Amino acid sequence: MKSTMANLWHPVKGVQICDLGEKRYLFQFFHAMDMNRVLKGSPWTFNNHLLVLYKLELGEDPLQIPLVLTHFWVQIYNIPTGFFSDNLAVQLGNFLGNFMEHDTSLLGKGNRNFMRIRVQIDIRRPLKRRKKISFGGNCSYVTFKYERLSLFCF
């Protein structure tokens, strides 16, 4: 696992990986840029198992941290025309978990008819697949597609 993840991430300044036992590993990056790139690229998997990453603060015990939250990019489909907005992105993100950000670079480009948001999700809870929304007296369902979803989550 250690060599696979190090080869996958290609950290510029390197990474040290220590097995802490209890299915926990400590990844020590030697440059903040490498660590931020790995955290931003989550979720990561190894052998179809989700790697739940957490950025330790000084003095925290890695064996005491509850590893139950992870970030996902989620695509939201079937949004009625004209209802793409920052407010809708935040509301739907908070419905799924905790809204982090949304990707505005895809809106209105080519054939893209979905919104893309990044959310922090509690992995102990079932994933949500759709939500009913009301607009102008009409109701519709938006559907969610989780990017890089491992078999663990199914």
From TrEMBL:
Pfam families, alphabetized: DUF4283, zf-CCHC_4
Domain Zinc knuckle CX2CX4HX4C per the UniProt entry, residue ranges: 121-154
PANTHER family: DUF4283 DOMAIN PROTEIN (PTHR31286:SF153), GLYCINE-RICH CELL WALL STRUCTURAL PROTEIN 1.8-LIKE (PTHR31286)
Domain DUF4283 residue range list: 1-62
InterPro entries, alphabetized: At4g02000-like (IPR040256), DUF4283 (IPR025558), Zn_knuckle_CX2CX4HX4C (IPR025836)
UniProt-recorded name of the protein: DUF4283 domain-containing protein
Domain of life: Eukaryota
Species per Swiss-Prot/TrEMBL record: Gossypium trilobum
